[in-house]
Amino acid sequence: MNPTIELLKSHRSIRKFKDQQIPRELFEDLIRAGQCAATSNHVQAYTIIHVVNPESRRKLAELAGGQTYVESCSDFLVFCADMKRATESAEKAGADVIRGMTEQLLVASIDAALIAQNVVVAAESEGLGICYIGGIRNNPQEVSDLLKLPEHVYPVFGLCLGYPDQQPEVKPRLPLAAILKQDAYDDSQDEHLVARFDDTMARYYRERTGGNKDTNWSEQLKPLFTSKLRPHMKEFLNKRGFGLK
Predict the structure, then answer these.
(1) Alpha carbon distances (Å) from 114 to 5, 23, 37, 105
(2) CATH of the domain at 77
(3) Which residues, including other chains, have CB under 8 Å from residue 234's CB and lie 6 or more apart?
(4) Largest CA-CA distance found in the chain, in angstroms, rounded
(5) Rounded Cα–Cα distance for residues 215 and 220 (Å)
(6) 47 SS3 class
(7) Would 29 be classed as within a structural domain?
(8) Are residues 143 and 188 in the same domain?
(9) What PANTHER family does this protein's entry cite (predicted)?
């Protein structure tokens, strides 16, 4: 197997880290590798906040829902969608810029995700562990205030980096046929494929917890669709200058 493909297929989220710091030279190489990710029109619409201050890390862990590994990992990053730098640069070059376009929100959010995933792959290739922290969006205004984020910048997610102190199993994914379609969207087999995947996930949860967790993929999805998930985000993004037009 190609070692890069094998690495990608072995991804796990790590939530327990050794008390060991990532060397600064390696840390910066990871970020440089991240910068080599694709970016729409070379805008590079992202900024990464490397949170070093212990009190800030503690506060972010609390704001993200009590995720203590935000504090215990070697390095914690907050990936921000950033249209401030690009629009101001275009303005200085003489453009009559238009701010607040929904497409700008999409471009910046996608750019942030792409650079982060490059960082993740680079980190895992060095034997490091990672955990994305979407809980940053639980309290985006408080996070923005803490990190002093200006208008046209918003925190998309956090990322824990460090040396893993656990070896969890790789979590199963949906069958390829469920997510790979030919020529057009065809969901005629999806019900069957999802049922099979539910069985797979039920076995996974039972084995991982020694029989203490009896659930499956579909059951785990229910909370996401029976309540309004982070309803504050629309107003928050509007106030940040995103998604108005």
Answers:
(1) 17, 24, 6, 14
(2) 3.40.109.10
(3) 243
(4) 64
(5) 7
(6) strand
(7) yes
(8) no
(9) OXYGEN-INSENSITIVE NADPH NITROREDUCTASE
As a whole number of angstroms, the distance between CA 74 and CA 19 comes to: 7
Residue with tokens 């993200």: 64
The tens digit of pLDDT for each residue in 24-67 reads 999 999 999 999 999 999 999 999 999 999 999 999 999 999 99
Burial label, 19 (beta-carbon count in 10 A; 0-12, 13-18, 19+): exposed
Summarize pLDDT for 172-191 with one digit per residue, the tens. Answer: 999 999 999 999 999 999 99
Cα(219)–Cα(141) distance, integer angstroms: 31
Alpha helices, DSSP H, located in 102-173 = 102-125, 140-147
Strand partners, 75: 161
Secondary structure letter of residue 13 according to DSSP: B
- CA atoms within 13 A of residue 121's CA, in its CB half-sphere: 18
Selection from 154, 180, 163, 176 nearest residue 239 by Cα: 154
Quote the tokens at residue 31: 């970020």
